[in-house]
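PROTEIN DESIGN WORKSHEET
SECTION A - STRUCTURE
LENGTH: 474
TOKENS:
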């Protein structure tokens, strides 16, 4: 199978405006109103970590730059993701639920993993309409040559191909004695093989996010100088365990490594925001701040789910709901807070729309266009619900404020999945921690709409069977 030809769509007009420093915002004729997009993705950042989501000083570290970003844009309180790192990143890249792409679980090791090259990524989609594209951080969607970011639509990339816990391995004598293969920091450019840099050990773990921020700023400078709109995908490694701050932030808060890492995270977001202002492209740049999934449950790196319950690798709200802030001055309403349901797959379709690109027509795309909702033209989301997969198990369905679950609660990734004899229903407005299942005929009416979502999705899997994990490239 070949990737489809993507058609050039209508580019949106963007108004020029003054930056906070009073300088005229740059508007290049080559850009034709297409906004730049900076997509900042934190790793295992729970709902309750950032100040505007109830964290900040209560978690030992204020987050002033992220909090200010929320006042300048729209903040969602019901933004949903997939339950694990690899599935979540796959959904962002393709606009498809990961069960379709053979990426429904974090690869443990051995065998071919990640996205097949048949999948069409957001980077490939935006490249067709003239965007410069780059990824800086954790990929986790394939570590073989051919499945790294520079072979999946990105002009350039720097980061780690897999995950941060592998930083432990080089300091383990048993791993060295066994001749284990260690993860390396890598970088590459489109049309070339990616090359290995230093081993990703505990020292490099502390330094990598600062380098990702530096490279992001450099990429934006080069893109603006060339007159090209840009898409910067910045999947930082913080706050994934081992949650170790950069030496410049160690001891900053006085509360330990995790709060110090939150302070570092906020600072790097501030660096990127300052660079956007310095480049005078603030009014023509969409900035997203979010996380790939809910928090870690392992001491001493455990995170906070805020008002929800549960950790990642589960169907609990603490796994699915994460922070989401989006800013586009003069286009997306400032200071708006919404509890409408949005899923991360929607970002693919929405950003393709605002960039004037077409989405693939030869495969199911689960992402819905949320541009009217985010731009304030509609009060309601385009989405009422979605199926919740944990690995390859359909464990729940969300519909409006209701959640129908088919498996018993899982607090963390060690809890074995136990299928229920009969589904439980939870009203997430009155029962945000999913402790009191609604019972009896009085509340069974909500099962109909939820089951309809499930049935329609299952039928779509029959019409277009999912790609099996480990499927080689065509």
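SECTION B - SEQUENCE
RESIDUE ASSIGNMENT:
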């Amino acid at each position: 199978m070949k990737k489809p030809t993507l058609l050039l769509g209508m580019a949106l007009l963007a108004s020029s405006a003054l930056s906070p420093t009073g300088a005229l915002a740059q508007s290049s004729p080559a850009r034709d109103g297409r906004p730049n997009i900076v997509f900042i993705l934190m790793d295992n950042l729970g709902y309750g970590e950032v100040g505007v989501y109830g964290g900040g000083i209560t978690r030992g570290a204020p987050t002033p730059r992220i909090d200010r970003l929320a006042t300048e844009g729209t903040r969602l309180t019901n933004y949903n993701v997939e339950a694990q790192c690899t599935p979540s990143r796959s959904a962002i890249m393709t606009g498809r639920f990961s069960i379709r792409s053979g990426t429904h679980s974090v690869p443990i090791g051995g065998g071919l993993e990640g996205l097949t090259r048949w999948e069409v990524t957001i980077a490939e989609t935006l490249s067709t309409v003239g965007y410069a594209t780059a990824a800086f951080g954790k990929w986790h969607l394939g570590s073989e040559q051919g499945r790294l970011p520079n072979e999946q639509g990105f002009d350039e990339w720097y980061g780690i191909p897999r995950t941060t816990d592998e930083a432990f391995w080089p300091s383990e004598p048993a791993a060295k004695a066994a001749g284990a293969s260690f993860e390396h920091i890598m970088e590459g450019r489109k049309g070339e093989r990616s090359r290995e840099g230093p081993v990703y050990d505990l020292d490099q773990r502390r330094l990598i996010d600062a380098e990702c921020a530096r490279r992001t700023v450099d990429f934006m400078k080069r893109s603006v100088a060339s007159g090209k709109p840009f898409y910067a995908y910045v999947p930082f490694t913080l706050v994934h365990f081992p949650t170790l701050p950069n030496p410049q932030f160690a001891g900053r808060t006085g509360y330990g490594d995790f709060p110090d890492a939150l302070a570092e995270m906020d600072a790097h977001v501030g660096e990127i925001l300052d660079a956007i202002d310095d480049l005078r492209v603030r009014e023509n740049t969409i900035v997203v701040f979010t996380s790939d999934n809910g928090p870690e449950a392992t001491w001493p790196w455990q995170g906070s789910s805020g008002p929800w319950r549960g950790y990642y690798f589960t169907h609990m709200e603490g796994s699915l709901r994460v922070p989401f802030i989006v800013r586009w001055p003069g286009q997306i309403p400032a200071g708006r807070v919404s509890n409408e349901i949005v899923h991360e797959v929607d970002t693919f379709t929405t950003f393709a729309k605002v960039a004037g690109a077409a989405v693939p027509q030869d495969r199911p795309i689960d992402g819905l266009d949320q541009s009217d909702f985010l731009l304030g033209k509609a009060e309601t989301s385009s989405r009422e619900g979605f199926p919740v997969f944990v690995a390859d198990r359909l464990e729940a369905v969300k519909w409006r404020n209701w959640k129908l679950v088919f498996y018993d609660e899982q607090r963390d990734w060690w809890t074995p999945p136990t299928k229920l004899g009969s589904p439980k229903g939870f009203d997430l407005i009155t029962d945000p921690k999913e402790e009191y299942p609604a019972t009896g005929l009085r509340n069974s009416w909500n099962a109909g709409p939820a089951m309809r979502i499930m049935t329609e999705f299952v039928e779509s899997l029959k019409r277009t069977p999912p790609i099996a994990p480990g499927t080689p490239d065509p």
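SECTION C - NOTES
The first helix runs from residue 64 to 72.
The longest strand covers residues 419-427.
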